[in-house]
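User: Teach me something about this protein's shape.
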Amino acid sequence: MRGPDIERESARAPANHRTRRELGAFFAAVFVVTWGLGALIIFARPQLEALIGPIGIVNQHWLYFIAVSAPTMCAAVIAAVSGRMAGLRELLMSLLRPAQLKWWAVAIFAYPVGLLVYGLLERALGARNDVDMHALLITAPTMAVTTLVLFSDPGALREELGWRGFALPRLLRLCNGATAAIVLGVLWATWHVPAFLVEGLSQATFNFGWFLLGLVSLSVLMTWIFVHANGSALVAGVLPHAILNLTFDAHVFKVVPKTQAIVLAIIAALILAVFGPSLRGWQVSAPHPRRDLPNQGAA
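Assistant: First, the predicted structure itself:
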């Protein structure tokens, strides 16, 4: 290495160490909270109910909301401890970052358009129709504009400040966009494991392999939006997450989560093929990273 390169690496090392420490604390805390509560419900429910009363329908109980909200709660605590009020303010501001209108459109329509194309191809090829076109084109949009489902979605609102607001920008300081997306997608999917073991939750009926593929692919889509949408956790995280869940609530597909995983995997593959590992484009030069966006590691 030349002198200036060595100096830059030396200056970057403490920041990278802090980033790794924050990420380690975040993921450890998130898994301890969610998996800990999940373990109590799965393996010690009688004893737990003896202490707190009947749990009833799991996804309507306050313990469930704590488990689902763990990413955002843990992110807020670690940001406050690590960066005090400035750290907490930076985390909250990730929801308010301005983004170009076209990236709002991508966040809202990329996945539904993918489903539409997939459904049309199914019909053109005479294959089994897994995409319900009426549900996609009529039911889902109607639910979006006539109900509060997009604004009351527990996953999008309670998870994304943690996943995309806290974890993703830190991962992007350590590695390229594709690697950050895949790592976060795998951890995000694995975090859901207790839901696959609790009777009454939707994931209990899912195939985990398809679910894993779907979330990793969705993470690629979200990260691609994130690096172009000024690091907005709202545009890159909350919106795509809520849209995904809306299509589930509207019963857009018959085989869950296989169909959504296939569509998302195709979208992710196209993004990687066109934009490369950085998710910004194959010819990327960033010697002077912007101060308002998280630094992205080497491709």
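Now, about its shape. Residues 3-43 form the longest helix (41 residues). Residues 182 and 216 are 6 Å apart (CA to CA). If you'd like, I can walk through any region in more detail.
User: That's plenty for now, thanks!
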